[in-house]
């Protein structure tokens, strides 16, 4: 691994672990609850995140270049929730733009098993070919669109392995039962996505802890953080699990203590 690639990955994953904060949801679903003003949403959460995952539009318009964290730039799109198929994506951002924006990594979705499987994997291959020349890691996101039933180990292991085989340096996928089968079959670091928001913060802490124990190196959680009634508290608790090896019980105590402190401060 060359110096630039190794340096960027070390910034994104200090100590080999990571907590990415995704705010890219608007690229396919428009204004999202609690993310109407993404800069304001993410600002209090920055102390706990290692990187922000966002599009170039939001990066330019809403993220302070003087106080930002490393950026994983979302570079795929061209489909929406009101269109015919979320899997029908193309690359949206050139390598020149990725470099101009000083992104630490580039990310895109791949849709294994859909009508657009080949196109999305070709997007990945093209992006890897371009980014490798400049030492920029590519994160492949194993997207499932509306087909939530695909979030099972056999399918996710297949999708992650294919993404790694095509050159992704990092793969983002969903937590599932038997998550170790997903992680052990992927030769590059695996990061967990959050998916739909959980009912309780304890559920979030439990699945994150389980996934890390079974081979994930970190998390890429958005809605389960910034749609929480207590986003700073859950972010602090999640960081403790990711970077301090906190147990679920310890992290939940951090969540409750931080929530109480914040509530007292507001009062």
Quick overview:
Helix content is 44%, strand content 15%. It has 267 residues and is α/β, with parallel strands linked by helices. The protein has a single domain, classed as Aldolase class I (TIM Barrel, Alpha-Beta Barrel), CATH 3.20.20.
- Taking all Cα atoms into account, the compactness measure Rg is 17 Å
Identify the CATH class. Alpha Beta
Strand content of the residues, in percent? 5-15%
| Number of self-contained structural domains | 1
Count of runs of 4 or more consecutive helical residues = 12
**Overall residue-averaged pLDDT value:** 94
Shape: globular
Oligomer kind: single chain
User: Structural class of the secondary structure composition?
Assistant: alpha/beta
Strand order of the largest sheet: 1-2-3-6-7-8-9-10
Number of strands: 10
Helix content: 40-55%
CATH topology name, in short, is TIM Barrel
